[in-house]
Specification:
- The protein is 47% helix and 11% strand.
- It has 306 residues and is of the alpha/beta class.
- It has two domains: 242 residues, Phosphoenolpyruvate-binding domains (TIM Barrel), CATH 3.20.20; 34 residues, no CATH class.
- The chain has an eight-stranded parallel beta barrel, surrounded by nine helices.
- Helix 5 links the parallel strand 3 and strand 4.
- Helix 4 packs parallel to helix 5, helix 5 runs parallel beside helix 6 and helix 6 runs parallel beside helix 8.
- The radius of gyration is 20 Å and the shape is globular.
- Pfam families: PEP_mutase.
């Protein structure tokens, strides 16, 4: 439901995500996607939730590394497209630092809610941030971080529901106690989920889940990064309630496309697809549904098939 002047937005995906979070015996598994194609492939497999990676969004939309160059508009537009592919499947989306001061954070939250995003995470890096798995990250003060969380909570109260995930990158430079202290204060202000970036060991992972209970804690699964490599079952056993795989599609796409373009350059030909004919790829992206919709409306363009 929405109105022009005093917009209130409620999306079923948010209620679904909150119900999933309420099940203490469940871990929510979120494959990382960054465009419509990777989202469609993940949706076909029937996951409960998707995750829109900021790094993947920056690389796919801008062709640049994750160094704080993506704007609110870049991220919101991509999130809106992905969330709209199947509104029944919740989308968790990276919202970086909120892209400015409290007013801008409030605008970010409002825009994500209106875009149909079910959850977002806000972090405590400076606005010109960098990927959480790069070195020498700069942080804002605890007061500024909490102002971001407070702005997000206030914007949610004015606009509609969204799950707020508080992320801190303070572990590396300020230590465990300071980082967890920031998360506890963010949760007390109204954040729903905690996200400690760059957990360094399984022991530390178990500890943060215990220290922040009963709030859900998110694990960021980045193979080859700072974090320990955990499977879904291992993360669940340690106490995590949400696990995201932000780089899930990035590595395979890099490897396969690099191999394909190298072959074209060297041999002047391309390798026959082992799977994924043109029709199959179109079907994953909704070919049958699009044709059926056109025919149901009386369109004749596809009456003889495609």
């Amino acid at each position: 439901m929405a109105s022009i002047n005093n917009t209130t937005v409620q999306h079923p995906a948010v209620a679904k995500l909150r119900a999933l979070l309420a099940d203490k015996d469940k871990i929510i598994v979120c494959p990382g996607v960054y465009d419509g194609f990777t989202a469609r492939i993940a949706l076909r497999e029937g996951f409960d939730c998707l995750y829109m990676t900021g790094a993947g969004t920056t690389m796919s939309r801008l062709g640049m590394p994750d160094l704080g160059v993506a704007t609110l508009n870049d991220m919101r537009d991509n999130a809106a497209m992905i969330a709209g592919l199947d509104p029944s499947v919740p989308l968790i989306a990276d919202a970086d630092t909120g892209y400015g001061g409290p007013l801008m954070v409030g605008r970010t939250v409002t825009q994500y809610i209106r875009a149909g995003v079910a959850a977002l995470h806000l972090e405590d890096q400076v606005v010109t941030k960098r990927c959480g798995h790069l070195r020498n990250k700069e942080l804002v003060s605890e007061e500024e971080f909490l102002a971001r969380i407070r702005a997000a909570v206030n914007a949610r109260a004015q606009t509609g529901d969204i799950v707020l995930i508080a992320r801190t990158d303070a572990l590396e430079s300020l230590g465990y106690d300071v980082a967890v202290g920031r998360l506890k204060k963010a949760l007390a202000l109204g954040a729903d989920v905690a996200f400690l970036e760059c957990v360094t060991s399984r022991e530390q992972a178990r500890q943060v889940c215990e220290d922040l209970a009963p709030y859900p804690v998110l694990f960021n699964a980045v193979p080859g990064g700072v974090l320990p490599d955990l499977s879904v079952s291992e993360a669940k056993e340690l106490g995590f309630r949400v696990i995201i795989f932000p780089g899930l599609a990035l590595g395979p796409v890099y490897e396969s496309v690099s191999r394909a373009v190298r072959m074209l350059k060297e041999s002047g030909t391309q390798e026959p697809a082992k799977e994924g004919s043109v029709r199959e790829i179109f079907t994953v992206c909704g070919l049958k549904e699009a044709v059926a919709f056109d025919l149901a409306a009386g369109g004749a363009l596809y009456a003889r098939g495609v």
